[in-house]
């Protein structure tokens, strides 16, 4: 509910053509109206769900601000209200000893204020917030110039960890710029069913994080809506026996890291099994309203009077997209040949869950699997 503050999220399930993407579009509009920053991420080969860095990059690149076009992160940086309570909260939070983010974020926030007269370095900081690298040596040199070298302890950090931490820092940055928080819409999550078992495991853990919230930062103003096909449970969790194989394989590795991953993956799978919100098929009234509206639109678009058409038989198994396509196709054909009597049939689209190693995340430079 975009009127409420995050964190956490929901998982929506529906068949092909049931309107999942349209629901996301509606929720995006509602969230923007409520003052949230909104991003839509389509899970794909280029944006695998198990890779936080790629998901973050896609999310920040797509981020939209209420009533403002252009680069969201640039507008957010320019709009930071350093005299506001929200900025003070951000500054205190990121400088806490137990802050769940690397000290780079505290240093960058301090230096962004300090570097206001240095547009080039200020832009490099904003690019770091947006996902680019910012060498530690550069930060140390700038901190030394500002007389704050001893305040920030900067050490090596994995890019995967920094990406996850950006999802903690940047929503608060958005609040400090006057927004309610960040809503991330994740579409076509069912693609994870085609990953290898290990990457499916990591993806289930990501489902848990997006829906349950970040256990290391439960107060982040970050919310999400995920979509998947409604038979993912039957086809993957049961069909591939992930419910048993995933935790068994992970715990067999005998490390604390994989034990934690197994627990998170189990949570993600339970969410898919038990907490998925199914999209309901349109009722007869909704179909009648949609039919009449489309008929008016078709008439105005082509300057004619469309005849009534039968379309598809109204069955609970049919999707709204199928009804719409059938009506429009029949009107298009009748407009070309008024005597033509089309006979429309619908068939179910079968989602392919065959494993494809190329979807796991490849390094485009050399074709190797991406490393954590």
How many helices? The count is 14
Radius of gyration: 24 Å
CATH topology assignment of the largest domain: Rossmann fold
* Widest sheet: strand ordering: 2-3-4-1-5
Number of strands: 5
- Beta fraction of the residues? 5-15%
Spatial shape: globular
Helical residue percent band: 40-55%
Order of helices and strands: EHEHHHHHHHEHEHHHEHH
Number of domains: 3
What is the first-to-last residue Cα distance? 33 Å
On the 0-100 scale, what is the average pLDDT? Answer: 91
Protein structure class: alpha/beta
Parts with pLDDT < 50 across at least 5 consecutive residues: 362-372
CATH architecture of the largest domain: 3-Layer(aba) Sandwich
What does the largest sheet look like?
A: 5 strands, parallel
Show the helix and strand layout.
Layout: E1 8-13, H1 20-33, E2 37-42, H2 52-62, H3 72-78, H4 85-94, H5 103-114, H6 119-129, H7 136-145, H8 159-176, E3 182-187, H9 197-212, E4 222-228, H10 232-238, H11 242-251, H12 256-275, E5 277-278, H13 284-302, H14 320-336
Parallel strand pairs: 1-4, 1-5, 2-3, 3-4
Helix pairs in contact: 2-8, 4-8, 5-6, 5-7, 9-11, 9-12, 11-12, 13-14
Verbal overview:
By secondary structure, the protein is α/β, with parallel strands linked by helices. The chain folds into three domains: 8-66 and 179-278, Rossmann fold; 96-160, no CATH class; 284-336, no CATH class. It is built from 14 helices and five strands. It has a five-stranded parallel sheet, with helices on both faces. Helix 5 packs antiparallel against helix 6, helix 9 packs across helix 11 and helix 11 runs antiparallel to helix 12 (256-275). It is globular, with a radius of gyration of 24 Å.
């Amino acid at each position: 509910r975009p009127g409420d503050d995050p964190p956490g999220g929901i998982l929506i399930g529906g068949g092909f053509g049931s309107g999942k993407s349209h629901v996301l579009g509606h929720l995006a509009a509602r969230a923007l109206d409520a003052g949230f920053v909104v991003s839509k991420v389509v899970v794909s080969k280029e944006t695998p769900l198990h890779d936080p860095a790629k998901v973050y990059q896609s999310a920040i690149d797509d981020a939209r601000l209420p009533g403002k076009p252009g680069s969201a992160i640039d507008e957010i940086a320019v709009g930071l209200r350093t005299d506001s309570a929200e900025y003070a909260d951000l500054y205190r939070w990121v400088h806490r000893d137990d802050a769940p983010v690397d000290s780079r974020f505290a240093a960058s926030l301090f230096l962004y204020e300090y570097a206001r007269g240095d547009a080039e370095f200020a832009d490099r900081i904003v690019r770091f917030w947006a996902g680019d690298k910012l060498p530690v040596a550069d930060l140390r040199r700038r901190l030394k110039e500002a007389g704050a070298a001893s305040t920030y302890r900067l050490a090596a950090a994995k890019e995967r960890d920094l990406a996850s931490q950006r999802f903690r820092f940047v929503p608060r940055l958005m609040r400090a710029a006057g927004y309610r928080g960040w809503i991330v819409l994740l579409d076509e999550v069912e693609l994870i069913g085609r990953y290898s078992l290990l990457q499916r495991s990591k993806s289930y853990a990501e489902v848990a994080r997006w829906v349950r919230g970040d256990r290391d930062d439960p107060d982040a103003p970050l919310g999400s809506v995920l979509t998947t096909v409604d038979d993912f449970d039957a086809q993957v969790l049961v069909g591939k026996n992930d419910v048993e194989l995933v935790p068994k394989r992970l715990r067999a590795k005998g490390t604390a890291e994989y034990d934690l991953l197994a627990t998170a993956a189990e949570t993600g799978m339970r969410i898919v099994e038990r907490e998925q919100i199914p999209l309901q098929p349109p009722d007869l009234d909704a179909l009648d309203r949609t039919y009449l509206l489309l008929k008016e639109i078709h008439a105005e678009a082509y300057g004619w009077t469309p005849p009534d058409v039968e379309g598809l038989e109204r069955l609970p198994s049919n999707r709204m997209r199928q009804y719409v396509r059938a009506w429009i196709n029949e009107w298009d054909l009748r407009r070309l040949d008024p005597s033509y009597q089309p006979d429309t049939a619908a068939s179910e689209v079968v989602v392919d869950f065959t494993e494809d190693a190329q979807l796991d995340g490849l390094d485009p430079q050399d074709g190797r699997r991406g490393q954590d």
